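The material for today's practical consists of a large collection of protein records. A record pairs a protein's sequence with a compact description of its fold. Instead of coordinates, the fold is spelled out as a row of discrete tokens. We will come back to this pairing of sequence and fold again and again. Here is such a record, shown just as it appears in the course material.
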Amino acid sequence: MLFVIDLSYQALSGTYNFGVPKRYDTPTLLLDRSAGAQVLAAARQGKTATLRLIAQTEDAETYQLFGYLPGRNYGKPDDEQLMLITHTDGPSISQENGALGILGMVHYLSKIPQAERPRTLLIFLDNRHYMPGAELAFKEQDYASKHPEIYRRIVAAMGIEHLGQMEHLDEPGKPLHPSGLVELSTVWISNNSRLVDLAIKCVKQNGLKRVQVQCPGRPGIHGGAQGPWYGLGGIARRLRVPGASTMGSMTAYWSTKARIDAFDANHFVTQVATMSQIAGELMVGDMAQFRAQESSAG
């Protein structure tokens, strides 16, 4: 299988692909625009070639990690929990840093005395990545599936991924280079007017740059669909609880060559601050007022 991708070799080199959720033992090759053009031209001429994948595979054990920042009712029957979730696998520190973002949120919210935190924070660091709708492929290895009581106390959920991204440009005739701007990002929010207004308020008050607030459950201001939930933030919809999530777009981070110079600490901090403020509101808010509203968008 050959994928011809409209990127330069520099942008594509080192790109990490996910074997999700099943490995088909099919040799696969990603081709940049230049090499791809040559292969496509050869294919149109009826030329043939043999592609062999010579590789070794090994089993590896990874972990789903759960932790709690106790609220005032922690350990009691009436304890309510706000879940913070991210993935812990990725090609580079530029991409795989949601766990650091969640730790930043927990560090901030831990400054509030436990007696003043109405709800408990559940931290879920998931080792399954890019499996939207296919998580059941690993149901036997999923701790939460074996312990459904984990989700019973959750009243809201937040997904945190791909923070501190810097936009990189891949222009013909030029090396891959940063534009000097932070990457485009999104804050997704459940279909509830109070939550939408809350997300917009938090974005503005924290000065988060180049971000859109997106509500998949309702039409946009021009009547069009606002798209799906991306990433692990969609778990709120599956659990039917209020939710919010954030994720940066992708121009450099897919590559294993995207080192720390593709990461902006100030942007990271601003994103963490924005999501911490949303989390704080979900920590104390009336969940009856945050429930999703029905709409024709589904």
